[in-house]
Amino acid sequence: MTTVAQLLSSKPNQSFHTIEATASVFEAIKLMAHKQIGALVVTSGDRITGIFTERDYARKIVLLDRSSRDTPVGDVMSKAVRYVRLNQTTDHCMTLMTDNRIRHLPVIDGGLLIGMVSIGDLVKNLIAEQQFTIHQLEHYIRGNSHADVAEVEAR
């Protein structure tokens, strides 16, 4: 079972991004577009106060015809931030995301934000785990000797 710590260490780009609650939604969207990410952790000083996602933008700015330049992120962010810790499993992350219909989970260690896990990270990890299992099963079925492999291939 893969832990969040293992998942983070396997990610080539472990960066995450934050934005102050007082910043405009326009600034947030501009940063998200530049970094090609779907969520920002919202902060007020060193404190996490929420999370701002593409979904928040679509539902709370676009659909309500609000100005992204005049609206602070703090007014439209999701305030209930679900998060995970390093020792939790990717299965736990997947369950949390599915049950709460979210796509991003901040990773907290010792009260500090140290990373972000996305649904894409979890799916990529799941595929890698399945490929490993398939490889192991194929290896088991074929056996270890070259003669066994040749025999199986001949059938």
Structural features, described:
Keywords: CBS domain. InterPro entries: CBS_dom, CBS_dom_sf, CBSX3_CBS_dom, Diverse_CBS-Domain. This is Signal-transduction protein. The protein has about 160 residues and is α+β, with helices and mostly antiparallel strands. It has a single domain, classed as CBS-domain, CATH 3.10.580.10. About 50% of the residues lie in helices and about 20% in strands. The chain has seven helices and five strands, in the order H-E-H-E-E-H-H-H-E-E-H-H. It has helices at about 5-10, 25-35, 55-60, 75, 90-100, 120-140, 145-155, and strands at about 20, 40-45, 45-55, 105-110, 110-120. The strands form two sheets. A three-stranded mixed β-sheet has the order 1-2-3. A two-stranded antiparallel ribbon has the order 4-5. A hairpin with a 2-residue loop joins strand 2 and strand 3 (about 45-55). It is elongated. The protein starts with a helix and ends with a helix. The mean pLDDT is about 90.
